[in-house]
């Protein structure tokens, strides 16, 4: 995913009236909110990609995956049993 730039403009008078500390706190809050937004956006895009992949599989692909899962079911159960001990 390419980085995206977001520019926020604030009126000059607002910045002049604000204390430096308050501006830093506001900058930290905006940064936090933008990072949260990007993470949710990436999560949504990943989920859509998985949905598209699973919706486009052929019945043969689905059967092959089920067979692979069945082949590894014993090993998975064995590992789960060891971890639970």
Largest sheet: none
Mean pLDDT: 81
Order of helices and strands: HHH
What is the CA-based Rg, rounded?
Answer: 24 Å
Overall tally of domains: 1
Give the count of helical stretches.
Answer: 3
Which bin fits the share of residues in helices?
over 70%
Give the overall silhouette.
elongated
Beta strands, count: 0
Strand fraction band? Answer: under 5%
* Terminal-residue CA separation: 42 Å
Structural class: mainly alpha
Q: Which regions contain 5 or more consecutive residues with pLDDT less than 50?
A: none
Précis, in short:
The chain has helices at 12-17, 20-56, 59-84. It has 85 residues and is mostly helical.
Any descriptors?
single chain, 85 residues, mainly alpha, 81% helix
Overview of the structural elements:
With 85 residues, this protein is mainly α. The chain has one domain. The chain has three helices and no strands. It has helices spanning 12-17, 20-56, 59-84. The protein is elongated.
